[in-house]
Fold these 2 entries.
Entry 1:
Amino acid sequence: MVDNFKILVVDDEQNIIDVVKAYLKKENFEVFTAIDGEEALNLFNRENFHLIILDLMLPKITGEEVCNKIRATSNVPIIMLTAKVDEDEKIEGISIGADDYITKPFSVRELVVRVRALLRRSYRDELPMADILTFDNGDLEVDIKKMLVRKQGLPITLTTNEFKVLLTLLSHPNQIFSREQLVQKAFGVDYEGYDRTVDTYVKNIRQKIELNQKDPRYIITVYGMGYKFSPNSSEVK
């Protein structure tokens, strides 16, 4: 059991480091920081990190080189940060060993959720999900342990299955799930319902948490692919 997850944040912009560090510390992570690739590798060689948030555009040693050197000896989870938006560059980042990829400007709350999701995948049951998740400056609040949802401070009643679908989506922000994938994640491979029942669950959830079902803010339909949860938060430039 890991008692205190250590995270290394590498970015040459001090304001980004400060904000990301503050948010991660609120989640009780132990946070180390570096402003260039050389410092990042020195820290990596001294400490045992559980996850690294790594900017690509770094002085002294580039993020790509840092990632390659780390991958030569370690499978530590890596989330890449970059201002690059070209699809080929994103693919290259994944191909050299990144586990996840987020472009600037980005939502720090989304980054924190991605950090938790990646740690859960990497360390299985060693990281419990936060008891209460909030989105859009508190507009939507989800209490995991009590299975309670509040919209603008008011309680909302979800069925058990609706809650499972919502929890699956918000635990993987901006990840697109097909109906089949959502069924397997939310209910397991032995679920005997039909994929199309997911549409009913999503419709019901939207009725309860969205201000405008025809223009949803949280559960987004990606036509021809499925659904995703889109956290609406202030962005860090």
Entry 2:
Amino acid sequence: MRRMPRAALWLPVLTLSALAVGLTTAQSQGAAPSGDPLAIKAGPPDALHGEALTGSCQGCHGPMGHSQQEDKPSLGGQVPSYTTLQLAAFRAKLRPSPVMQAIAAQLTDQDIVDLAAYYGQQTPRGPWEANPALSAKGQQFYNMGAVERNVTACVVCHGVDGRGNNELHIASITHQSPKYTLEVLHEFKSVPDYHIAYPNAMHIVTAQMTEDELSAVTAYLSSMGSSDMDKASK
């Protein structure tokens, strides 16, 4: 039996309150919407308190969110609104992961906001090693897309530096391990159309990408900014 991609299990629920979860500046204006499992109501983010909560995170995600494990994402430098949304989804058991569900279940709304703030203030981890020539091909696709197939360039949403957009809940996607990055891209490629802006955009793009293009973009994203990659692109 083919295992359903994990993204296919949790992406549909993001339509419930993607905006409400990320906009912490509006949290003081009233109670969270009734029945919304992803809604967050908290005070101003406290990064120092968030740091104090990271003891149980470091085993997988590393000190300051710099993961050294190929199957675990780095959290350092991630946009706060995206981290907030993921923790809320884990806590509501709408995103699968027994470990993360158990950890998130112990977090209050304020804890989630504070953790997201702490990781958002950290310097992103350094690049992973990747084939320079393959990275250069990925850089071209990232910046140009595939015009002849109407495939949008990644830079349009994720920016020149790949660091996403906090206001739009667009994730930072650089310097994750090649293994983790490729797995996530495959998940977006395989999910159906849910009529939800962000996952739909990712699905539309990745569904049209070849395996060679996915591998090249993965190499570029994981090694972006490395000296070897920069030399290969010149």
